[in-house]
Amino acid sequence: MSIDRRQLIAGVSASLASGPVPASGRVAGGTGSGDTTSSASPIRTSGSLKPQNRFSGDYQTARRRFLEAAAAVGAHVEHHRLPGFDGPDGRPLFMDAARIGPADADAVVVSVCGTHGAEGFCGSAAQTDWLLSEAPQRNLPKKVSAVLVHAVNPYGFAHLLRTNEHSVNINRNAIDFTAPLPENSLFEEIFATFPTRAGHDEDLVAEFGAARAAAEKKYGKWEVNDALGRGQYTNAAAPEYGGTRSEWSSQTLFSILKKLCAGARHIAYLDWHTLVSIGDGKLVYLCFNQTGDHLFERAGAWWGREAIDREAVNKQWSTGTANRRPSRNGILMWGVQRALAPQADVAGAVIEFSSDPIELLSNPEGSQRVWVYSRWLRHTRDYQSPMGRFVAAYLRETATPTRRSFQEAALTAARGSYARAFAGAARWAEENVSARPGKLVYYSAFV
Ligand SMILES: [Zn+2]
Closest by alpha carbon to 67, among 56, 173, 232, 16? Predict the structure, then answer.
């Protein structure tokens, strides 16, 4: 513990407490404290790039903007209400889908956001921006359509949490629940050494950090990162819990795509996430196709072979936390491929928006603090007290910075990513080839 850290948090508290608070329904958009002017940004912008109308301060505003944009371009729209759970403001929660283009398209660009709840703000902004700036002008290539799915995990999105209404990480949930569940005994061993007391204080953040450091010393840095991150199926109160059954978010997404991509043989898949600290406007492509197979190569042809290269991505993604990418259980993209096989094959990636290093995440205890704060907010559901408002605003800011320069750079990058995916989908459709889903997996070690 140090005075400096307390001062840092006090300072953040003062600046964020006047920012977006989800329960109040107020909208911060791009005007939150900490904004910088666009003139400081080296990123080219056009008159149509309007981050203040794309980035929302809360789930309900993000949803409204997405639906208004979809309606403005005449999209086919569907709404799927999450049963049994509402937002912190008591309002209902939905996964929404919009299709632009023919129902019998041979190739479909599928873009989803909010798989990790609070990470949905950037992806939502990218989707709405594409609808408003690109879709009306774009004569979608022949035999190509777009399906945008908004808020795969609306509970997490609205509550500013990574996991869903059952504390499940939807990006670890696509496994075979009829078979024995994946084991992760090292996770249990490490988690048993973590503090169990409730709270949100800085001493608790430090205790988590110390426990993790001790585990890294004992087992190795990559081993701890892998055990804590790859997914576990034994402890619903612990992070990266993959659940005991296919969750509503997974099932609903699969059924939406089966219906809206019913005539497709090929899917270009973009699952928007945040946040890696390697620079504003940079994207990290976590391609979950099998390394070197034809679908992996196809995604590389769109976004650049170097963009999906395993070693290059390891360096970008790990940002010092591990020397190579940890393994993964139950990635949602694998579930999408399984749901659509054998009629359609899926090439694509989880795409992480990046920002310049920010104080909230880049200080040594950043990830521990998000962990502690998320746990406290989930247990207390206190979105109204001064501390609850601060914690909610902190989690919102760490998921998507409200700096205007970040938002402009992120939207510019997303536009490029969409453009390349649509061009690739057009070529795929022109080739007139059968679907080849490749190997269907529930797990990958990425070696
Ligand atoms: Zn994520």
Answer: 56
